[in-house]
Specification:
Helix content: 25-40%
Strand content: 25-35%
Low-confidence stretches: 471-518, 639-663
Structural class: alpha+beta
Mean pLDDT: 80
Distance between the termini: 64 Å
Shape: elongated
């Protein structure tokens, strides 16, 4: 496989003639490049009255490889042939180098150019390209590729440093200017070249707009940029910042980044994303009930977006907006973020490539893990990660309650590892939180709701009135959670079938395609009867979670831990508490206090099962009721975090306010 490398343009702020005088001092050796042992001139000719000079050298280079490798290939040094073509009339130097050693097994070709800057004749430009084609090298092809990349990186980094060093040396000797070459009065004049030196990308631009990149990263950036020239239906060339983000998201694999970026550009065109900032108008429900907004900048110049997730009525927003409009809102925020990133970079005069997210979780409870809401969140997360990679620089999660690790366990599985590493978590301890925030945010802009002095324009969130709901089919079956779940599933299916259904289905994760009809079990309880579920736990520190709705009359719910083996129960009318010798404090213990759940209340909760015992979920109906129930166990292997207790929470279907009580 042929490896290709290309450097961006390096600009020396010195005239071409002075740079050439410095360049000559590199030979035959220089201390900055100890790998070059010797350079012998094998041909040197002047043409056209000195206007042109062609020089060929045979260079001896040390093999920069482990000792055992050098012993295996039987050499300590290799030879390269270098030919320089100097044109003083057109102020250009072209350099070509090929390997002489092992030329039947490896082909190395390098081309470098020095030339006068096209826009400033007092400056000099330099660029470099190289190819490495390893055909057969004693089974060490991969090792040779790695050494080739290492050598390219070292020579690229050293090249500008060496020229700067010798220019400084010339200045110390009193040589600060070299006259331009002029032809003899009576001599024939050399033709002036019409060659156009197109500066695709220069090093100063990279440092100013993209930050510090390694030579290999610069090379891959240029490679991907050139690949985009071959895209036929490209309406607008993406910025270098965008190209850099997609490369970084694909770990600098150019072909993968190219495929990802082309898919994203097609998606932007199909959904008119480039016009989103001009065309999008926030619905009134977002203006009045969405608790998020932009708030100043962090210490690195990143714009900050604040989301008070614990104050968000997830169910109300989703029912009033729908999946696609909620996605549209998220995309508008992303587009605003990119705009603000660019404005901040221009204002500060330094690279700013992403924005920060501050998430306030005060008020978060299990009700936020409403299944259609989680489904919508995962759908939005996947869409954003595919099309806005590496735009999130840091995520500060503050006032994380005990219930948060459950939500994080579910959501983090759909966030790539690199993005997860950007999350920083702070609990409800105010002093610890303030000390943590102080590392990233100036004290004067800490929001007032976190104890800081700065007021925000962010809405408090709160309950979305049902009069704003669009998805009325969900409300028509308020008493029947499975029906509501079927409606959510139908909505997702309709979305997937619009347009290219097959490709959309491939992109949706298993969580998106989960059949909600099988999640909830409906139980009819007669007056005075109980419903019990026995969970035999063999995984200490696994987490039991539950979500149930109560209809028609009150229910009493309790969680017990049982220390003795219980038989399987075949009669639903019989309770385990009817067994002989079944005594509280002896062979069973109350793990959660009894919770009285009212008509139309939705109850969510979780409990860390520390013991290798059985756990009994127990519902009692004094007057007869309907129970719509879902529960699951999160294994200790998949659940990461430490909780001493996770408490139950309940909310009323008729008043799903953000201030859910916690017990």
């Amino acid at each position: 496989m042929v490896q290709k490398f290309q450097s961006p343009v390096r600009v020396y702020k010195y005239p071409f003639e002075l740079v050439m005088k410095a360049y000559e001092r590199r030979f035959p050796t220089c201390p900055q490049m100890p790998i070059v042992l010797d350079c012998q001139v094998i041909k040197d000719e002047c043409l056209e009255n000195g206007a042109k000079r062609n020089t060929s050298r045979r260079c001896k280079l040390a093999v920069d490889a482990p000792y055992i490798f050098k012993k295996l290939i039987g050499v300590d040094f290799v030879f390269f042939l270098q030919t320089n073509y100097l044109d003083m009339t057109n102020r250009t130097l072209s350099i070509e180098a090929v390997n002489e050693s092992f030329s039947s097994r490896i082909e190395i070709f390098e081309r470098c150019r020095y030339y006068a800057h096209p826009d400033n004749s007092e400056w000099t430009c330099f660029d470099q390209t190289a190819t490495l084609d390893i055909k057969n090298f004693f089974g060490f092809e991969h090792s040779m590729e790695k050494m080739g990349m290492k050598q390219y990186t070292q020579t690229t980094l050293k090249g500008k440093e060496i020229i700067e060093f010798f220019i400084s040396q010339l200045k110390e000797e009193g040589i600060e200017h070299v006259e331009r070459w002029v032809p003899p009065l009576n001599g024939p004049k050399s033709p002036v070249s019409g060659e156009n030196h197109d500066i695709l990308l220069d090093g100063d631009f990279i440092a100013r707009n993209l930050g510090q990149l390694s030579p290999m990263q610069e090379s891959k950036l240029l490679e991907l940029r050139k690949m985009l020239d071959g895209v036929d239906d490209l309406e607008r060339m993406p910025s270098y910042q965008t190209i850099l983000r997609f490369l970084s998201a694909r770990d600098w694999h150019v072909s993968q980044a190219h495929a990802m970026l082309c898919d994203s550009l097609k998606w932007r065109r199909e959904h008119r994303i480039d016009n989103l900032l001009q065309e999008y108008s926030k619905p009134s429900v977002v203006i009045e009930h969405f608790p998020g907004g932009w708030h100043h900048h962090d210490k690195d110049g990143r714009p900050i977006y604040i989301l008070r997730l614990g104050h968000m009525d997830v169910k109300g927003l989703l029912k009033s907006l729908g999946m696609e409009d909620l996605l549209r809102l998220a995309l508008h925020i992303c587009e605003e973020g990119i705009q603000k990133i660019n404005e901040s970079a221009e204002r500060l005069g330094k690279p700013v490539l992403n924005w920060s997210l501050l998430v306030d979780l005060e008020g978060l409870s299990m009700r936020h893990l409403w299944r259609p809401g989680i489904k919508a969140l995962l759908y939005i997360t996947e869409t954003v990660e595919r099309n806005y990679p590496e735009t999130m620089g840091r995520v500060l999660v503050v006032r994380a309650p005990r219930v948060f690790p459950i939500a994080w366990t579910i959501v983090s599985a759909f966030i790539d590892e690199h993005t997860r590493s950007k999350f920083l978590f702070y609990g409800p301890d105010c002093e610890h939180m303030k000390d943590g925030l102080a590392q990233y945010i100036d004290e004067e802009i800490v929001p007032d709701f976190l104890g800081g002095p700065c007021k925000t324009m962010i809405h408090e969130g709160g309950l979305v009135p049902k009069t704003l709901y669009k998805m009325n089919s969900l409300e028509d079956h308020d008493d029947d959670t499975p029906v509501a779940s079927r409606a959510a599933l139908a909505s997702a299916s309709a979305s997937a079938s619009a347009g290219d259904a097959s490709s959309e289905a491939k992109r949706l994760s298993a969580a998106h395609q989960h059949d909600h009809r099988n999640l909830y079990k409906t139980v009819e309880l007669k007056a005075g009867f109980t419903h019990e579920l026995l969970i035999r736990n063999s995984d200490p520190k696994s987490v039991l979670t539950w979500d149930f709705d109560v209809m028609r009359n009150d229910l009493h719910f309790t969680l017990y831990r049982v220390t003795e083996e219980l038989p399987d129960k075949h009669d639903a009318a019989v309770s385990y508490f009817d067994l002989q010798d079944f005594a509280e404090g002896v062979n069973y213990f109350r793990e959660e206090p009894t919770l009285i759940c009212r008509h139309k209340e939705s109850v969510q909760g979780s409990h860390v099962m520390h013991h290798n015992d059985s756990y009994l979920m127990h519902w009692f109906s004094p007057s007869g009721a309907q129970l719509n129930l879902f529960y699951e166990v999160l294994s200790s292997a998949n659940y990461k975090g430490s909780m001493t207790s996770l408490q139950s929470a309940f909310s009323s279907n008729s008043s799903a306010a953000s201030s859910c009580q916690s017990r």
